[in-house]
Write a structure and sequence with these properties.
alpha/beta, 5-stranded parallel β-sheet, 15% strand, globular, RNA-binding
RNA sequence: GCAGGGGUGGCAGAGUUUGGCCAAAUGCGGCGGGCUUAGGACCCGUUUCCUUUGUGGAUGCGAGAGUUCAAAUCUCUCCCCCUGCACCA
């Protein structure tokens, strides 16, 4: 078995010493590829490497194809996660302490240092780099940077200056989950149990109160049901309030609790509290038809959701219907439902939605949906909820409006029309609701929605900008092709992006220093920074003025002025510009599917907003994640394997091969110890084969030698296109797994030509280089070479050496062996006697003619005609034969071997056949054979007769 | 709800663009056998059902319907699963 760790250390040192991955501007064609930023709030595990394997293979492959390759990496540390870790560490959170001690091996006395977020980030960055080196990645480490470095911040400030200049930074209101105790925006990480706030916008409709200069506000998702309004519901025993909203003259009735929640979205001034009993005495007027409706108590109304008041549409809302029926039962006079949507109740729901009974009251859909479920107005709230869902689903998908003015419209159409109408008339207010309320901040305070004023946005909705991004995408190569559609949709979908954050690490927002730049927005054009970071590493950050970046990235201004203004040397500025312009014309971004609706469109938009078209994004590779033995990796499952541990246990190359060969580009790969063991053994098999090459001789080439050359060249020809589109799995099926099988077949067939085997192994070793670089170097050198495999050329296929005829002949042999074994087993089982000999009976040449006729004509009739005309053929036998073949006409292939050819081939391979089949072999022709089975023989498929 | 991806044999996963050579590649697992002191190594066979000295038959690729001489593949309807939806990176 190969000692993987030993050869890893050896070759990693050799590559580093030779500096072969440090890329400089040169005359060769450039190629730049990079993987997604890893996030630095913990240690690397094997999963992190999956996303770097694809760009790594591409980088190594492209070098072999003659490109000058830049493969850099940087680290992401902006945003809140690192602060989160620090916070937990400070409070000595048990889990975090455990992680630091047991997993990261950091002694407790050092914890204090890690309470500084920068220290923590840098510590892990250092660890990451060590791991990357141990993984043998062909990265140019001189270009490493972290997104919280001052020089990077200068770059980001420049970027935002450009966005501002172009008018892409705008300000506006933005709803966000908020904790008023800490006075902070809260996201998933800040909320108890890690739940993300779900914010939805609703419309609050104003209902004039008869005889008062005041309105009742009802929040609703379905304004289109307004024509079906019969009354207003409030909650019994709740306190209501008369308010002025945004300094209005008129008053608004909402619940006291709602006033508390909504005051962060609008200015609310409570004039007086109102008892619910007073509310019940009011009469409200519908804004669209002027109908007067009563206010009634609804058992299901929640005072702290929406406005604490809802409109009632009993014909279509099961809750409303149930509430009215319950009131009726208590002798209260209630209005009759008004049906406004026509729908075939239950027709589209299918069995899965547990529709059980036929509805009777189809004139009241709300009741009908309860009937379907065998429920009624007294049923539990869960059942009413289910009926509501069914009603909503079917009515909005298949229903047609019957209400006057909206006849025939679908519900969504009507919703939009009525919503727009109400807003235009000033009869509705937009409000935001926390869909999954109540949520609590980790500090214990309830989370509410705060409508933040003057939030900064990047306006990705800008039509001209979007047009440019679409153009950029259309000219970009997206791999795999099937993900292109999703990227397209993401570009179309991206709209306003809130870009200023109240907390987190990173770069301060240049136009309001109280805020930080949001952490995805500072990682969009970062790859451009790779092209210069090694040149400005020691530059004073303050010197990196906009003029410098303008000149380097946009060729604005002249070098002498820039040098004077910034104090950066002429030489450095010149080199930076050259480097950017050289590398940035071909970039391939390898990233994960989860970035399709976030990072990827932003990456595209920012490139076309800032750079000249020449430097827009060129390539995108979307690669899947890593599963652990078929399961998702997660802390809770305890199946996260630290990378160092994996490397020392299994070796780098087997891990890399497992990652690259166990899945296609887009799908998740599976880390599997069984698969890794298989890889280790196969690599060792190749090594053994290489060490044994010298024991072989170098005689004249035989059929099996041509066969191996044919397989090799076909392999090169077929695997190369897969490498070009990053389908490493398909490529390495051929390069790796099939090579083992071919070598084994070659040796079993008696192949023993040292030169042939060496040619074969040399090419295979080189093709293994991108994926298993350490083994490839080892093999390459063991084969007597002194150059680096990493610097060699990718093998070229020699089409002349591809020999279909020889391959078919070998296939024939294997088929014969298989058939013979099967026949022997069968016969022995049946007769109880041992088979002594197998007769292989070769078909006559006239059968070949018929095969060829059928293969070209694909029509049995025509062939019968020809047989009739023929003088040479035995007409009866020929017709029988055609009949047999015609059953599977499509399988009949042209035959290019004569009977004599076949006999010669089988004779040559007789020894192999005898050994494989395990008994004596006799070869005879159909016409001379005395066997009954002789006439069953077919070209390339001889008849077999077992002799006892 | 909206958007994207998907549903294939015990499992994983090809095949779908361009319908036929597809009982369906490949890998894993199971079973049987060989090699062996032994084997988790390797080799051979088998792994829907029936039948069997076969270029045999039936059923079959989420469900249903349709187009066709012919459907995993095309059309329509339905069901289900995964992912994302913005102070998360």
């Amino acid at each position: 078995m190969i000692n993987f760790n030993e050869i890893e250390a050896k070759w990693q040192k050799a590559w580093t010493d030779a500096k072969i991955f440090e890329s400089e501007v040169s005359d060769s064609k450039s190629f730049m590829v990079f993987g997604a930023f890893p996030y630095t709030n913990g240690l690397l595990h094997v999963g992190h490497f999956k996303s770097y394997v694809t760009p790594e293979i591409l980088a190594r492959y492209k070098r072999m194809r003659g490109f000058n390759v830049l493969f850099p990496m940087g680290f992401h540390a902006t945003g809140t996660p690192i602060l989160g870790v620090v916070k937990k560490l400070k409070s000595r959170d048990r889990e975090t302490v455990e992680e630091f001690t047991n997993k990261y091996h950091i002694p407790e006395q050092e914890f204090q240092k890690f309470e500084d977020p920068l220290y923590l980030a840098n510590y892990f960055v250092g660890k990451f780099e060590e791991s990357y080196k141990k993984f043998g990645l062909s990265l140019d480490f001189r270009r490493r940077f972290v997104t919280i470095e001052p020089i990077f911040s200068k770059f980001i400030e420049w970027q935002f200056g450009k966005l501002k200049e172009n008018g892409y930074l705008i300000q506006g209101k933005h709803p966000v989950g908020w904790c008023f105790n800490e006075n902070n925006a809260v996201g998933m990480d800040d909320i108890l149990h890690g739940i993300a706030p779900e914010i939805e916008d609703q419309i609050a409709i104003k209902f004039k109160v008869d005889g008062e200069d005041a309105y009742v506000l009802c929040a609703t998702y379905r304004p289109e049901t307004l024509p079906g309004l019969t009354n207003i519901f409030i909650k019994e025993n709740a306190t209501y309030a008369l308010c002025k909203i945004n300094g209005s003259k008129e008053g608004y009735y909402i619940s006291r609790a709602a006033a508390e929640i909504l005051k962060h979205q609008m200015k609310i001034e409570v004039v007086k509290d109102v008892d619910y009993k007073d509310m019940l005495n009011k009469v409200c007027i519908s804004p669209i038809d002027g109908r007067k409706v009563p206010v009634l108590p609804g058992f299901f109304v929640k005072e702290n959701i929406g406005t604490g008041i809802v409109m009632s549409v009993p014909a279509h809302a099961p809750f409303d219907y149930a509430a009215l029926e319950r009131l009726k039962q208590n002798g209260i006079k209630v209005p009759e439902p008004i049906k406004i949507i026509d729908v075939e109740i239950g027709s589209k729901l299918g069995n899965a939605n547990s529709a059980q009974s036929k509805p009777v009251h189809i004139d009241i859909p709300a009741l009908a949906y309860l009937e379907i479920l065998n429920k009624d107005f007294n049923s539990a709230e869960d059942d009413l909820e289910l009926a509501t869902k069914l009603a909503y689903k079917e009515e909005s998908h298949y229903g047609k409006m019957t209400a006057k003015g909206y006849e025939g419209m679908s519900e969504p159409e009507a919703r939009e029309k009525i919503g727009k109408l109400l807003e235009e008339q000033g009869n509705a207010i937009k409000i935001y609701v926390l869909q999954n309320a109540p949520l609590f901040c980790r500090c214990g305070t309830e989370v509410v929605i705060n409508l933040v004023d003057n939030q900064w946005f990047i306006n990705y909705g800008d039509e001209n900008w979007k047009k440019a991004a679409r153009e950029e995408l259309s000219e970009m190569l997206v791999l795999p092709g099937k993900s292109a559609k999703a990227v397209q949709d993401a570009v179309d979908w991206l709209n306003l992006r809130a870009v200023a954050r109240s907390q987190g690490l990173g770069t301060r927002f240049p136009y309001d220093k109280n805020y930080m730049i949001e952490s995805l927005s500072d990682s969009t054009i970062y790859p451009a920074f790779y092209t210069i970071v090694n040149l400005i590493r020691d530059t004073e950050p303050d010197r990196l003025k906009p003029e410098f970046f303008d000149y380097v990235f946009l060729a604005k201004g002249n070098i002498d002025d820039v040098s004077k203004v910034t104090g950066i040397s002429y030489e450095t500025i010149k080199k930076c510009k050259e480097s950017f312009e050289y590398w940035y014309t071909t970039t391939t971004n390898c990233t994960a599917p989860e970035h399709i609706f976030s990072h990827i469109p932003m990456y595209l938009f920012n490139h076309c907003a800032i750079f000249d078209k020449k430097y827009w994004a060129k390539g995108l590779g979307i690669n899947g994640m890593l599963l652990m033995e078929g399961e998702k990796m997660s802390k809770s499952l305890g199946n996260v394997v630290p990378i160092e541990e994996a490397i020392s246990k299994y070796g780098v190359d087997p891990i890399r091969m497992n990652m690259a060969a166990s899945s296609e580009l887009y799908s998740d790969a599976n880390f599997s110890v069984a698969a890794i063991n298989g890889i280790q053994e196969r690599l060792s098999y190749i090594q053994d084969a290489i060490l044994n090459v010298d024991t072989l001789d170098a005689n004249e080439l035989k059929q099996i030698d041509y066969w191996l050359y044919s397989k090799l060249n076909k392999k090169i020809r077929d695997a190369t296109p897969f490498m070009d589109i990053m389908e490493t799995r398909d490529a390495y099926m051929q390069i790796f797994y099939n090579s083992i099988l071919e070598l084994k077949h070659y040796l079993a067939r008696g192949g023993k030509n040292g030169i042939v085997v060496k040619d074969y192994l040399s090419a295979v070793s080189l093709m293994l280089q991108p994926i298993a670089p350490h083994c490839a170097e080892e093999f390459w050198h063991a084969l007597g070479n002194t150059t680096f495999a990493a610097k060699e050329k990718w093998p070229e296929a020699n089409e002349q050496m591809i020999n279909e005829k020889v391959e078919k002949q070998e296939d024939m042999l294997d088929a014969i062996i298989g058939d013979a074994k099967q026949a022997i087993a069968l016969m022995e089982r049946k007769s109880g006697k041992k088979v002594k000999e197998i007769k292989i009976i070769i078909a006559e040449n006239w059968k070949r003619d018929i095969n060829n006729m059928l293969a070209t004509e694909k029509n049995a009739g025509k062939v019968y005609e020809k047989i009739k005309e023929s003088n040479e053929l035995d007409k009866q036998a020929a017709a029988d034969y055609v009949r047999r073949l015609s059953k599977k006409l499509n399988e009949v292939k042209e035959v290019n071997l004569t009977q004599e050819d076949e006999i010669t081939i089988l004779d040559e391979a007789k020894e192999y056949l005898q050994k494989s089949i395990g008994c004596k072999i006799v070869i005879e022709s159909e016409s001379t054979s005395k066997s009954e089975r002789a006439k069953r023989s077919m070209p390339m498929k001889p008849s077999l007769d077992a002799i006892f």
